[in-house]
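For consistency, the fold was encoded as tokens, as this record shows:
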Amino acid sequence: MIEPCDLSAVDARRLIALRELSPVELTESCFRRIDELNPTLNAMVTLARDRALQEAQAAATAVVRGRSLGALHGLPIAIKDLQATEGIVTTYGTSFYRNHIPKQDSRIVARIRSAGGIVIGKTNIPEMSIGANTINRLFGATGNPYDPTLTCGGSSGGSAVAVATGMAALATGSDHGGSLRIPACFCGIVGYRSSPGTVPHEDRTIAHTNYSVQGPMARNVADAGLLLSVIAERDRDSRKDPMAFPLDSGAFVDPSATNVDTLRIGVTADFGGLLVSEHVRREFVRRVEALEKAGAEIIPLSVDLSDAVGVDWQLRADVFATQYHREIEDFDDSFNPNVFRTYETALSTTVLDIAKARRRQVELFRSLDDVFDDVDLLLSPGVSVPPFPWTALHPTEIDGKAIDNYMTWLGLTACLTVVGHPVAALPAGLDCDGMPFGVQCVGPIYEDAVLLQMANGIEACFDTSKDFRPPRPDFELIKAAEPRCQELGRAAAIAAAK
């Protein structure tokens, strides 16, 4: 018998409306799963158990009394610990804020609550959410649900693990250079990075940028679209984000699946020469062949975004200088080294260097945008390497080639941040080592509703394949693993910062 927490968000919401599933039953099921698996995986770092159960009871009462129900009514939602939650500790993954209890929700959380979502707790992140391995000195590491000794990716790693294991029906994330997409690919779920400005981000520190995109994490495309429809809603507060543009957020709900045999899919394994392991290249080819066999027209692309990694490093430095120049002097020497390295780059970068990067960014955007004259969407691997031990902040080499900094191995996702096109990270089964493998589906800028439909079609195609259908973690294996992510993860994070 399926547990309520293993239902899709769309199915759970439908059953709640039909009075066939109580929000209390669903929320209690999620907490039971947390109690079973979180001691090993360390995905949820702060729980709001009493408050969530009270809200679930109120949600159940509203159903019985026939009240109007929001899009997320009664659904348990996990919130990335980067996003403020009223009355619930929000640490940003650092001991500097270990006792920080916000007096109001960030707007993404407020929209979720107003739609009837129930906040069950906060998910683990790297310190200040910087890095693609979820580990910090305060809470330790978050383990991969397919092998707890390996990384789940980051920075939205705790959210990805919570969703993959049924700790929450849905979760929030955010994305600089891949923070939604990398953990989604490493954990076998969906992560959606929308066109910049689709999801209002009222707390951004730069007026117009492709960075700091907030988005949904879910077990399938339809669930991701449901959460996206809520967090992309326009209200009075969304006007505080200068990037928020008028849209119909309802277009993201229940995206119809585009038949794969009608799609022209452009494919690239490395965007013109980015570092990608042979392991990932082989696995990617297998997925492309499956789509071609299903009737898709496969079009190899020669698009070159290889210098986007250098552009990203310069633009990232600009973002960090803006975001941290007021606080950086208060951070001690053991603070996340990724923050210091990027900030130091900013201080040594000239205005001309930034100007050249911005000019090149526009050129790269146009070169990718031209691709969509000939294809419906673009497909690439999600991450350049398979999951590695979380004891390392990042890989030091790929197939013997040394990497320059903590962003070099993230070129596949970072290059798409630079150009800004929307991306759906989709699960595509397990690789030859039994670990999740994910792909990125890239669509035309601002055509998010269409991209969700195409991604839904690809998801449906993979779902019919025994080799590439979305995976499911082995819960008994997780429970049998030694729960050392917290203890050893703290020690590893402290050692890395020295």
Notes: The chain has one domain: 4-497.
